[in-house]
TrEMBL record:
InterPro entries: ALG1-like (IPR026051). The lineage of its organism: Eukaryota, Sar, Stramenopiles, Ochrophyta, Bacillariophyta. It comes from the Eukaryota. SUPFAM superfamilies: UDP-Glycosyltransferase/glycogen phosphorylase (SSF53756). Signal peptide: none annotated. It comes from Leptocylindrus danicus. Its main location: endoplasmic reticulum. The keyword Transmembrane helix applies. It is found in: Endoplasmic reticulum membrane. Pathway: Protein modification; protein glycosylation. This is Glycosyl transferase family 1 domain-containing protein. GO terms for molecular function: mannosyltransferase activity. It is a single-pass membrane protein. The keyword Cell division does not apply. GO terms for cellular component: endoplasmic reticulum membrane.
Amino acid sequence: MTIWLESGDYPKFLGCADLGISLHTSTSGIDLPMKVLDFYGGELPVCARNFQCLDELVQHGNNGMVFESSAELADQMFDLLVNEDKYLKLKEGVRGMTRWRENWINCAADIIQKASS
């Protein structure tokens, strides 16, 4: 038995959660935590550890919350547990995000089509 999930089990596992927690930090300050994208794909709001450029992915109070310390993370988790309206607002923020296919069509499809014709 291993701690790794089969690829087909991963979306099911995320579907059982209410909140994603990202402890990712970046030494370069320019890489984004792909785990957060997995959480968003499962329509999970996120509590994410703050670092340079995280705001490109997590907008505090809109699709997640950003924390600096373990105490702040604990406060955020408790707040979301007792404040359903705040949790639902974050969840709605995740649902309203542009999906990959929409982004592709809006940003790259025309360029690729023009280049290939």
